[in-house]
Amino acid sequence: MAADQRPLNEVVFLTVAEVAAVMRVSKMTVYRLVHSGHLPAIRVGRSFRVPEKAVHDYLEESYVGVESA
User: Fold this and answer.
1) How many whole angstroms separate alpha carbon 20 and alpha carbon 36?
2) Can you give the residue ranges of the Helix-turn-helix domain (predicted)?
3) What is the DSSP-derived secondary structure letter of residue 64?
4) Confidence (pTM)
5) CA quadruple 41, 1, 11, 18: dihedral positive or negative?
6) I want to staple 14 with a disulfide (CB 3.0 to 4.6 A). Which of 18, 44, 53, 62 is the partner?
7) Which of 7, 13, 11 is CA-nearest to residue 44?
8) How far is CA 24 from the centre of its chain?
9) Which DSSP string corresponds to 9-54?
10) Which long-range contacts (CB under 8 A, 24 or more apart) does 26-32 make?
11) Quick check: 16 and 47 in contact, CB under 8 A?
């Protein structure tokens, strides 16, 4: 097990609606990120669950810093 991985029973999963609220985007945007592979998710029945760490990792990777002049 890698250093940044937790046992599966300790992973916090979020619903699409919860991810949308955290990211302040629509649920459709979250579905697009999941289907495009940018945001990993597992399918539970007809819905998706996204690991909380994956959301934070995605936001950190997507962060665009603004340099002041």
Assistant:
1) 16
2) 13-61
3) -
4) 0.80
5) negative
6) 18
7) 13
8) 12
9) GGPPEEEHHHHHHHHTS-HHHHHHHHHHTSS--EEETTEEEEEHHH
10) none
11) yes
**Which residues are bridge partners to 43 per DSSP?**
48
Handedness of CA 22, 26, 31, 36 (dihedral sign): negative
Q: Per DSSP, what are the bridge partners of residue 44? A: 47
Q: What is the pLDDT of residues 17-64, one digit of tens each?
A: 999 999 999 999 999 999 999 999 999 999 999 999 999 999 998 888
Are 44 and 50 a contacting pair, CB within 8 Å? Answer: no
| φ, ψ for residue 68, nearest 5 deg | -85, 150
Amino acid identity, position 49: R
**End-to-end CA separation in angstroms for the chain:** 44
Q: Phi and psi of 38, rounded to 5°? A: -75, -25
